[in-house]
Write a structure and sequence with these properties.
Order of helices and strands: HEEEHEHEEHEEH
Low-confidence stretches: none
Helix content: 25-40%
Largest sheet: 8 strands, mixed
Structural class: alpha+beta
Strand order of the largest sheet: 3-2-1-4-8-7-6-5
Distance between the termini: 52 Å
Number of helices: 5
Radius of gyration: 16 Å
Strand content: 15-25%
Mean pLDDT: 95
Shape: globular
């Protein structure tokens, strides 16, 4: 894929996600596959609502920088491991919304290590789903600063699912993906909304 066009698409995705309040204080990172062994990804520490093409760099599938003079995100391996696991993944987006951070932290603290989504019309936003009458499982994993260990844990959880669409890191946020950047963006938006719905339903149930 053309690097400039891919970088610009990631910039625009960042502006949208930041505009929703899902990328506070430079948090989050976004990537897209450029070829069999190469990925475009956001540079570390950039405000996601003010990205430019110069804030996108190249890395290989091991997460090693191919663009000189810039620093890759510490979470690059969480992106590249997904590309290695699923050849059909073309883009990965990571958000830090208040609801996904809060719900994931609370649920894992209560011993719940997955979010089960069912009977939502918005589930049809995911590939291969044409009805609300399905169940989609979103794993929740404990946070860690050891990216090798964290990526290994994530991949083990995802490999147990037939068609994974995303996962949550407790107290950290959401990862979602798609075959293209627009599809990844749609999956991310859908999951963020579904997480918010789950959180609101949980709060409503506690008040009744």
């Amino acid at each position: 894929m053309d690097f400039q066009a891919t970088a610009q698409a990631l910039v625009e995705a960042g502006r949208f996600l930041a505009g929703q309040g899902w990328a506070p204080a430079t948090s989050g990172n976004y990537s897209a596959r450029l070829g069999p062994q190469e990925v475009a990804i956001t540079v570390s520490g950039r405000p996601k609502g003010r990205l430019t093409v110069q804030d996108i760099m190249r890395v290989d599938l091991r997460g090693q920088p191919l663009t000189p003079g810039v620093k890759a995100s510490a979470e690059t391996l969480l992106h590249t491991s997904l590309y290695q696991l699923h050849p059909d993944i073309g883009a990965v987006l990571h958000t830090h919304s208040i609801d996904s951070v809060s719900l994931s932290r609370h649920w894992l603290g209560q011993g719940q290590d997955q979010l089960r989504l069912t009977n939502y019309e918005l589930l049809k936003a995911f590939p291969g789903i044409s009805t609300h009458d399905v169940e989609v499982t979103i794993p929740i994993v404990a946070n860690s600063q050891d990216m090798v260990s964290l990526s290994t844990t994530v991949l083990a959880r995802l490999q147990a699912l037939a068609k994974p669409v995303g996962y949550l890191i407790a107290g950290h946020g959401l990862y979602a993906w798609g075959a293209t950047i627009p599809q990844a963006l749609m999956a991310t938006e859908a999951l963020e909304i579904l997480v918010s719905c789950t959180l609101r339903e949980t709060l409503l149930a506690q008040r009744i």
